[in-house]
Write a structure and sequence with these properties.
The complex is a heterodimer of chains A (662) and B (268).
Chain A (H helix, E strand, L loop, with lengths): L1 H27 L9 H20 L3 H26 L5 H24 L11 H20 L16 H24 L5 H11 L37 H8 L6 H5 L1 H4 L6 H13 L1 E2 L17 E2 L16 H5 L6 H5 L6 H15 L7 H11 L22 H4 L1 E7 L7 H16 L4 E3 L9 H5 L3 H15 L3 E7 L2 H10 L9 E3 H10 L13 E3 L13 H9 L23 H4 L7 H12 L3 E4 L2 H8 L7 E4 H8 L16 H10 L1
Parallel strand pairs in A: 3-4, 3-5, 5-6, 7-8, 8-9
Antiparallel strand pairs in A: 1-2
Helix pairs in contact in A: 1-6, 2-7, 3-4, 3-5, 4-5, 5-6, 7-8, 17-26, 17-27, 21-22
Chain B lengths: L8 E5 L2 E3 L6 E3 L1 H16 L4 E8 L3 H11 L5 E6 L6 H12 L3 E5 L11 H9 L3 E2 L2 E8 L2 E7 L5 E7 L2 E5 L11 H6 L1 E5 L7 H5 L20 H9 L15 H14 L5
Parallel strand pairs in B: 1-4, 1-6, 4-5, 5-12, 6-11, 7-11
Antiparallel strand pairs in B: 2-3, 8-9, 9-10
Helix pairs in contact in B: 3-4
The chains are: A mainly alpha (662), B alpha/beta (268).
């Protein structure tokens, strides 16, 4: 009896899965077009899955092995099952392999089940709680029906009077497994992640991320075409492969666990945001969501549709605006996501609509954008005063020299008294190493970082184009900056607008100078030091080593924080978050200074004006905040046979800086 | 009361502003507040129609500034085109007389050009309409009478009932203007209206120079306690020894003003 029932069951499940797949694909295709190479993308899936994706999953060895056993076992078992039981190729070799595959899957599912006993808060519950049981049902069912094929079962067992009952039970278990694994895969069950995830790997909008590459620059809006939408108003305004990406979410909550805004109690949870996009794409309410909600926002009050607004003009729609404005664009979620989902892109896309179409940038946002338009800097300072802090330094200007080795990009920190100290220290270092450098001076403008992350693509492009025009007048080998945000924008985001530069962070440049023997340092006599990785230097640009090398060269042994390197926790200063200032239960920089305190370090080295400002703003902190440039400048000793300009006297730089400031 | 509320035609007069630090053209602060007031009326009084007017030349710089207003949520505006240096008052007065809006809102003082703050008064004189300055809010419109809240110094407010049509001017007491959004600003259209430009002959004769900070009158604080010194530094000086003249003849009024100017050494 099973011989007739099995093919029917299998092919029914496959047919339903195929119908579901077509429906699902139609949901994705509601999105805007985004050209991809279909065949090349599909061909790249195995490599992207086995190498790039497992590189992320493999950070948690237990779940990585579990997934290999379960998923590998499932894929093999599914294919073999269709051959053996669907098409009736009752070959003992195939059957043996099928037994092996289903055993592997069963063992894997045991580990999945173990993780579901007291699951961590980041995991979604609901249908995900039944998944281990479904996995067991499938693997066990397949195992049992295959036993007769290889002749391991006493022949008489499935005959006789009890056999009908036994066969029915077996068919029932198998039907449950098939339902979850095949039908559920394309009809929105937990297994959907496998179907959408594989296709997302194939048609990812940042294919450069695979194969060890990095792709972190936001994609430019087409402002020339007036018909093109300015950002994302409704789910269907995303590109189709973004929608596909949302659908790939496996709700593991790794993003939630690393999100600084979530930890601070601000109303953002990256996982919930992606699930809300899935709800919007299919239409409906978020009531079925079974994970952690946005802090302070109960589940079940929001609903949306593919062509309805994501953020309501009044009242509630799919997502509230403060959720979108809580993000610091630190990319921790993107870095952690095993499905390679691009949360930050989606958030900025939606912010673009709020700013460009609705004029609803919260709190100080509008003021900052107006300042950027009128004065080319976010603080509204006189653009002619950009070099006032360096009045005594006689900085060489690009306008005079036209051609130098290094163009020093000052960034908007030039208007900030704290960052002016860093800049003065950096200039002291450059002069000590006799670097041929110059600054743009008053010709420099804000890079456009804040404008872009607040969604004001128009102001960003205006600033970027004018900066590119200025830079094109001069010849230089590389740009060096102490602002990772400028670094990122100049290096990764100007390219699309026609500006291609070799940009270095000052820590990278100082490390090179030291290696070239152009700097010598007095031995470190301070206390213990830890290092805070700026998001825009580390995760955005992959520079984790150079700052540590510089600290090592200074004789400092870095006491690493638990979250450092690619897992560094944001200072809270990115993405315009200090400007939009969405309230939470605690402040992000306070949490980061607690991380510092846990290491017992007396000093935290930073490499970003934003991080400096945020971390120094923490009240009652136990550690001093110093930029790497300041540490280097303080440790400088005159090299033998160097010039005698007097720059080597240790306290000179800091005291003059303060005199100028006061 | 509610049913008698009715929407009216509102004309908002806007000028090209000038950023105080960089001098770049922008939407003028006060005019933008005027438009904000009109947009708030539109939201509260259904049926209110806003028309926005600017008299001046059409070029890239002024268009960008005018689009700054449009980005607050208007679909179009009327541009009374006239060459630089023309007097805006005749063009605006002629247009308003024909278009006949019930309420005209304007900023108190322009950020470039003469900036004398006389335009609302000159328009009111030409049209023969009442003028209320320093407006804080438009409360209601009933049967051709508008109830206004006028801002007085030190946070005081005065409620006024004014028969329409009327002109109101706004300064920093009015609610701050909303953010200007790029999309609506880009989509909005201009409708051109021809004018008979009159060169501002008086302005042409003037000698213009960058403004200097006016000297501040020193406040001599004779006080013993820190509290008094703080009060003197923090508070606006209350007019002392002033007198309120009511029901006096023009001659008596002029005499009082003349006497004060003498006392203050303005006239010698």
């Amino acid at each position: 009896m099973l011989d007739t029932l099995l093919p029917i069951l299998i092919f029914t499940a496959l047919t339903l899965a195929a119908i579901g797949a077509v429906r699902r694909i139609r949901l994705w295709r509601q999105g805007r077009p985004s050209p991809v190479n279909l065949l090349k993308g599909l061909a790249a899936v195995p490599r992207r899955y086995l190498v790039d994706l497992h590189h992320v999953v493999g950070r948690d060895k237990m779940i990585s092995n579990t997934h290999v056993a379960t998923a590998g076992g499932f894929v093999a078992a599914a294919v073999l099952m269709i051959l053996v039981h669907g098409l009736g190729l009752a070959n003992p070799v195939l059957g043996g392999l099928l037994l092996l595959a289903s055993t592997s899957m069963f063992i894997g599912s045991l580990f999945v089940a173990r993780r579901r006993i007291n699951p961590p808060a980041r995991l979604s519950k609901g249908p995900w709680m039944r998944l281990p049981k479904s996995l067991m049902a499938f693997s066990l069912g397949v195992f049992l029906i295959t036993l007769p094929t290889v002749g391991l079962l006493p022949e008489g067992l499935l005959e006789g009077s009890g056999s009908w009952l036994l066969a029915l039970i077996l068919a029932g278990v198998l039907a449950w497994g098939l339902g979850e694994m095949f039908f559920g895969m394309t009809w929105g069950g937990p297994m959907k992640h496998a179907f959408a995830g594989a296709l997302h790997l194939a048609f990812h909008r940042r294919a450069e991320r695979f194969g060890g590459g990095r792709s972190t620059g936001l994609k430019a809006l087409n402002l020339e075409n007036e018909a093109a939408p300015l950002g994302v108003e409704k789910p269907a305004d995303f590109t189709w492969n973004q929608l596909l990406g949302f659908d790939a979410c496996v709700q593991c909550g790794r993003c939630e666990a690393v999100c600084p805004a979530f930890a601070a109690g601000q109303p953002l949870n990256p996982k919930k945001l992606i699930q809300d996009m899935v709800v919007g794409m299919a239409g409906g309410s978020d009531a079925a969501y079974a994970g952690s909600p946005y802090p302070g926002k109960p589940v079940g009050e929001h609903a949306g549709s593919p062509h309805g607004p994501i953020v309501a003009l009044e009242g509630k729609a799919l997502v509230d605006a403060d959720t979108l404005w809580s993000c610091t664009t630190c990319r921790a979620c993107v870095e952690e996501c095993p499905m390679m989902i691009e949360h930050v892109d989606a958030i900025v896309d939606m912010r673009r609509h709020l700013t460009l179409e609705r004029g609803k940038t919260p709190n100080k946002g509008a003021e900052v954008l107006d300042n950027l338009i009128a004065t080319d800097n976010p603080g509204g300072f006189d653009p002619g005063s950009r070099l006032n802090w360096a009045a005594d330094l006689e900085l060489p200007l690009m306008a005079d020299l036209k051609q130098v080795d290094v163009l020093l990009w000052l960034g908007d920190g030039a208007f900030d008294m704290r960052n002016q100290r860093t800049l003065r220290a950096l200039i002291k270092v450059l002069k000590a190493a006799e670097v041929d450098f110059a600054v743009l001076g008053n010709e420099e403008r804000d890079s456009g970082d804040v404008a872009r992350r607040l969604g004001d693509e128009a102001t960003f492009q205006s600033l970027a184009k004018r900066n590119i025009a200025t830079l094109s007048q001069y010849q230089f080998l590389q740009i060096v900056t102490c602002d990772p945000h400028s670094f990122h924008v100049l290096g990764n985001e100007y390219g699309e607008l026609g500006g291609h530069y070799k940009v270095r962070h000052h820590s990278t440049f100082i490390a090179e100078l030291f290696e070239a023997g152009r700097l010598s340092f007095a031995p470190w006599r301070g206390g213990s030091v830890t290092y805070h990785d700026p998001c825009y230097l580390g995760r955005y640009n992959g520079e984790f080593e150079a700052p540590r090398n510089v600290l090592k060269a200074l004789g400092i042994e870095v006491k690493e924080m638990e979250r450092s390197g690619f897992r560094s926790r944001c200072c809270g200063g990115g993405g315009g978050a200090p400007i939009t200032d969405i309230p939470g239960k605690q402040r992000i920089p306070d949490m980061r200074m607690n991380d510092v305190q846990e290491t017992g370090a007396e000093l935290v080295a930073v490499g970003c004006p934003q991080c400096t400002a945020m971390l120094e703003g923490v009240v009652d902190a136990n550690a001093e905040v110093r930029d790497i440039a300041e540490l280097v400048a303080d440790a400088l000793v005159e090299r033998p046979a160097a010039d005698t300009s007097g720059t080597a006297h240790r306290p000179a730089a800091t005291t003059t800086a303060e005199e100028v400031i006061v | 009361m509610q049913p008698e509320q009715q929407g009216i035609d509102v004309a908002v007069l806007v000028s090209i502003g000038r950023h105080p630090t960089t001098g770049r053209p922008r939407r003028a602060e006060q005019d933008a507040r005027g438009l904000e007031l009109a947009l708030a009326m539109e939201a509260e009084l259904p049926g209110t129609r806003i028309s926005m007017l600017h008299a001046g030349p059409q070029d890239d710089g002024s268009e960008a500034a005018l689009r700054g207003y449009l980005g607050m949520g208007l679909e179009s505006m009327t541009l009374l085109e006239q060459p630089e240096g023309s007097d805006a008052i005749p063009a605006l007065a002629t247009h308003l007389a024909t278009a006949a809006p019930q309420l005209v809102i304007t900023g108190a003082r322009a950020e470039r050009g003469e900036g004398s703050g006389l335009l609302p008064y000159a328009l009111a004189e030409r049209l023969g309409w009442p003028l209320v300055n320093g407006l804080a809010a438009v409360e209601s419109v009933e049967n051709g009478v508008v109830t206004l809240l006028q801002a007085l110094p030190r946070g005081q407010r005065r409620r006024l009932k004014v028969r329409l049509p009327a002109i109101i001017s706004v300064d920093e007491a009015a609610p701050a203007a909303r953010q200007s959004a790029f999309g609506p600003a880009r989509r909005a259209t201009f409708s051109m209206a021809a004018t008979h430009p009159e060169a501002d002959s008086e302005l042409a004769q003037w000698h213009l120079a960058p403004a200097r900070k006016r000297p501040k009158r020193l406040k001599i604080v004779k006080s013993a306690s820190a509290r008094d010194r703080f009060k003197a530094a923090a508070s606006k000086s209350e007019g002392k020894g002033g007198q309120v003249l009511t029901d006096v003849s023009p001659e008596e009024g002029a005499e009082a003003i003349y006497k004060l100017l003498k006392e203050e050494d303005v006239l010698r």
